[in-house]
Amino acid sequence: MGELQKGFVRTSAPLYRDVAAVLEKRIRSGAWRPGDQIPPEKQLEKEFGASRGTLRAAVSELVKHGLLYPQAGRGTFVLGPSFNSLERYFRYEGIGDEPRLSPQNEVLRTGSRKADARIAAALGVERGTDVGHVRRLRIHDGEPFLLVDSYFQPAVWARIANTDFRAYPLYDALRDDFGIYIVSADEYLRADIVKAQETRLLRVKAGSAVIRLERTAFTFEKRPVEYRRATGRADRFQYHVRLE
Q1: Which of 29, 31, 145, 236 is most buried when burial is the number of CB atoms within 10 A of its CB?
Q2: Average of pLDDT values for 52-74?
Q3: Mean per-residue pLDDT for 54-68?
Q4: Cβ distance 171 to 217 under 8 Å?
Q5: In percent, how much of the chain has pLDDT > 70?
Q6: pLDDT, average across residues 181-190
Q7: CATH of 4-78, one of 3.90.180.10, 1.10.8.50, 3.40.980.20, 1.10.10.10
Q8: pTM (2 d.p.)
């Protein structure tokens, strides 16, 4: 009996659902980490004693739930968590309880800039190094709500500089177009007062409260890809968490 078979218990459900349950358990337990490629179909066929069609149905189930991602010509990979964490806390009239926005991305700037001390530390480069810089403005229904400055590690920027940065979510585009998987991040959130140069872009008054986010995003090898500074309108921001 193969390694995967050890946790395989048949139920009254269709076989592909039982196989999917075992594969999901391995993902959620950390046995398969974000960015890992799952074993090839032949190996899984042998371990489960299941047909190729059954295995493909099981994998499709996990793809549908955002746990696996098939990449043509390469195989199927384990996905990391969603990183649209800040946007989900912005609330707008007329969208009910829908937690996720699908905002318009206006690109204000793309190019390179010298890394200051904080950017350099986050991206693992020397201060003054040329890093990629993209400034975007998130807009919902004509109203700007989030200003995002992203700074990219030089080797990453050399690959993605010509990307359409209007794409949302950006990490999906990096994964799909360049095989760059963002699977973990350090993120900090704090309240602040808007800076003078931000008032026009966010359409808020001087002295208004804003929410600031800093994030460093990593590949599964723990290599930094992006350092992000985001500023959001506090009058549209609502934080909610359930503690149980």
Answers
A1: 145
A2: 87
A3: 89
A4: yes
A5: 85
A6: 86
A7: 1.10.10.10
A8: 0.72
Mean pLDDT for 211-216 is: 94
Tokens of 8: 């395989």
Which CATH superfamily groups domain 87-236?
Chorismate lyase-like (3.40.1410.10)
Query: For residue 239, what pLDDT is reported?
Result: 74
For the cut 60, the answer to whether the pLDDT of residue 110 exceeds it is yes
